[in-house]
């Protein structure tokens, strides 16, 4: 008699990651993920001809303090994927509560998202947006492929920040941070 617990069969990882074989409904999964509030960023880079590119992103996270590393991810069918894959640098611009219109602007396809936007070229010519709560200028270190996204790993080479209120995103809408003042309801 064997008292060892039975182990489930090890899934074939290629099939496990294929969307057609997953029992999870993608729309419902996205709704569940929306329960996790995030900050809102605009990731920027420059094409080889110097043209600035940018997109709204909330899949930004810190990876390591020493060395300083961050990551973000981009869907594989993005029209600007090639620009980000080939750029030596990218900038993560963390948006403030007053920058919701900018987040919406960069979330949509457009020939010139930077029209009327105050920015300056950063490392590798990646745009640094004015009035952001923080900016992280990163050297592209590596890319990893996961499902329908490419995960970009960047080494932070320069950063700035201020004490302005950040813009938040949860359950498909923008919001603000309300600090707990310690009083009971």
TrEMBL record:
Belongs to the non-flavoprotein flavin reductase family. Pfam families: Flavin_Reduct (PF01613). This is Flavin reductase family protein. It comes from Bradyrhizobium hipponense. Residues 33-176 form the Flavin reductase like domain. One of its GO terms (molecular function) is riboflavin reductase (NADPH) activity. InterPro entries: Flavin_Rdtase-like_dom (IPR002563), NADH-dep_flavin_reductase (IPR050268), Split_barrel_FMN-bd (IPR012349). Gene3D superfamilies: Electron Transport, Fmn-binding Protein, Chain A. Signal peptide: none annotated.
């Amino acid at each position: 008699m064997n008292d060892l617990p039975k182990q489930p069969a090890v899934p074939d990882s290629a099939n496990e990651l294929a969307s057609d074989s997953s029992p999870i409904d993608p729309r419902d999964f996205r709704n569940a993920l929306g329960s996790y509030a995030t900050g809102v960023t605009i990731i920027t880079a420059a094409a080889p001809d110097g043209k600035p590119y940018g997109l709204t992103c909330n899949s930004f996270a810190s990876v390591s303090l020493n060395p300083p590393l961050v990551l973000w991810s981009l869907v594989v069918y993005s029209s600007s994927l090639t620009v980000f894959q080939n750029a030596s640098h990218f900038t993560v611009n963390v948006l403030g509560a007053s920058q919701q219109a900018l987040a919406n602007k960069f979330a949509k396809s457009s020939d010139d998202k930077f029209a009327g936007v105050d920015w300056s070229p950063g490392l590798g010519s990646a745009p640094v947006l004015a009035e952001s709560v923080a900016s992280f200028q990163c050297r592209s270190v590596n890319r990893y492929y996961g499902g329908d996204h490419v995960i970009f790993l960047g080494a932070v080479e320069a950063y700035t920040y201020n004490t302005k209120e950040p813009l938040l995103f949860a359950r498909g809408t923008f919001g603000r941070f309300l600090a707990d003042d310690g009083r009971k309801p």
